Amino acid sequence: MSAEPVPEVPLLVFFHSKRSGQSRRVEGYLSQVLQRRGNHNSFQVYRVEVEEQPQLVQRFRVDAVPTLVVVSGNRVRDRAITPRGCREIEQLLQPWLH
Question: Which domains are delineated in the chain?
């Protein structure tokens, strides 16, 4: 008897800066989207402080903060650069939300 493979939980990489007010707003929007839809476990959220991890910023080709990047199957599936609100984040995450 073989167990069914456990579906991979996508990685949601949140590139931000402590000095960016927009980063703080997007953090709030992201929390609202995940909480409202009951999707806290739909993603493994990884926060990247851009000043502390420039190698990841370069690797993911991030030009502006905040940026959200969805990684699934070891590939970047989608991204949102400086999202303006919950609706834009929901559109990005829609394929993985319940």
Answer: 11-96 (3.40.30.10)
